[in-house]
Every structure is written in C-alpha cells, then in structure tokens.
Amino acid sequence: NLFLPTGTQIRTRYYGEYLVAEITNNAIIWNGERYSSIAKVTNTMRGHTSNNAWKVLEIKRPQDTKWQLAERLRH
C-alpha cells in the first residue's frame, strides 16, 4: 500500500502524450471522472487496456519536486 495525499498527481505516457490524474479528497480524478482505484484509472487512461500501474505510472506528491516511478515508491 502507498498513501497518496490530496494534491498528489499521477501520470502515464500513452502514445507519446502524458495523461495526468489527481488525488482530491481521497478520490482519483481524471477528465472530470472519479475512479475508485489506481488500477482502474490507469487502465482507462491507457485506452481501457490491462496494465500494471506500478510499472506505467509516475507519481508526484505535493512535497515532491520531481516525478517518481510508482514502482520505486513501493519499496
């Protein structure tokens, strides 16, 4: 488990474009929609395909100055 506070941004690169979602009040928001899990938003952002979010996401928490691979934060 990884705690992601309000203001955390998560992004993935899909077909050369960065897509960014944000954590707001314990919800994940992307394109105006709420998602109940990181896995669901990741798969939606990446064309409704099955993905390992740990491997395809970068995370930037409010206190971070740069994006970090989700997999690195897990350890």
Count, helices:
3
User: What is the approximate shape?
Assistant: globular
| Percentage of residues in DSSP E strands | 25-35%
SSE-based structural type: alpha+beta
**Poorly predicted ranges:** none
Helical content band:
10-25%
Secondary structure: number of strands: 6
The largest β sheet comes out as: 6 strands, antiparallel
Report the C-alpha radius of gyration, rounded.
11 Å
Question: Can you give keywords for this protein?
Answer:
6 strands; 35% strand; alpha+beta; 6-stranded antiparallel sheet; globular; 75 residues
Summarize the structure.
It is built from three helices and six strands.
Description:
It is a single chain. The protein has 75 residues and is an alpha+beta fold. It is built from three helices and six strands. It has helices at residues 38-45, 53-56, 70-74; strands spanning 9-14, 17-24, 27-30, 33-35, 58-60, 68-69. It has a six-stranded antiparallel β-sheet with strand order 4-3-2-1-5-6.
List the helices and strands and how they pair.
Layout: E1 9-14, E2 17-24, E3 27-30, E4 33-35, H1 38-45, H2 53-56, E5 58-60, E6 68-69, H3 70-74
Antiparallel strand pairs: 1-2, 1-5, 2-3, 3-4, 5-6
